[in-house]
Design goal:
With 135 residues, this protein is an alpha+beta fold. The chain has a single domain (2-127), classed as VSR Endonuclease (Endonuclease, Chain A). The protein has five helices and six strands, in the order ββααβββαβαα. The chain has helices at 18-27, 31-40, 83-95, 105-110, 112-125; strands at residues 2-7, 10-15, 51-56, 59-65, 70-75, 99-104. The strands form two sheets. The protein has a four-stranded mixed β-sheet, sandwiched between helices. It has a two-stranded antiparallel sheet with strand order 1-2. A hairpin with a 4-residue loop joins strand 4 and strand 5 (70-75). The radius of gyration is 15 Å and the shape is globular. The termini are far apart.
Length: 135
């Protein structure tokens, strides 16, 4: 069964059966997910609301910002040998109008400042100037 999720006046369906798995993933984050979450939670990233382990369509994404239609994925060892599957998954979600930023687990752990800067830069490049008071 698919459930509708309203995001910024746009509707995305998601399989409600993923809710339990997403809750379990939120309870057991990887070290990289925990580290990045420290910078995304509580609207710390330029005032935007991010969700972690968010059911979206037929998938669970690592981080999702509904206002920006932005998905942030951290590719760790669970993504080894899954390039083709990840590509298909990403293309399907992009077809729904969603945007992706991908980082490796190693990048998040060893170069956190650069990852946070890349996310901030993407948001600034894809947000109207009025959001930042004309900056």
């Amino acid at each position: 069964m698919l459930t509708l999720c309203v995001m910024a006046k746009k509707f995305f369906k998601y399989d409600h059966r993923l809710t339990k798995m997403a809750r379990e993933l939120r309870s057991n984050p990887t070290p990289a997910e925990s580290k990045l979450w420290q910078y995304l939670k509580g609207r710390q990233m330029l005032g935007y609301d991010f969700h972690r382990q968010k059911p979206t369509d037929k998938f669970i994404v690592d981080f999702f910002c509904p206002q920006l239609f932005l998905i942030i994925e951290i590719d760790g060892s669970s993504h080894n040998d899954k390039y083709d599957i990840d590509t298909i998954r990403q293309k399907r979600l992009e077809a729904l109008g969603l945007h992706f930023l991908r980082f490796t687990e190693k990048e998040v752990i060893q170069s956190t400042a650069e990852v946070v800067t890349a996310i901030r830069s993407w948001i600034e490049e894809h947000t109207p100037p009025s959001k930042f008071g004309g900056l």
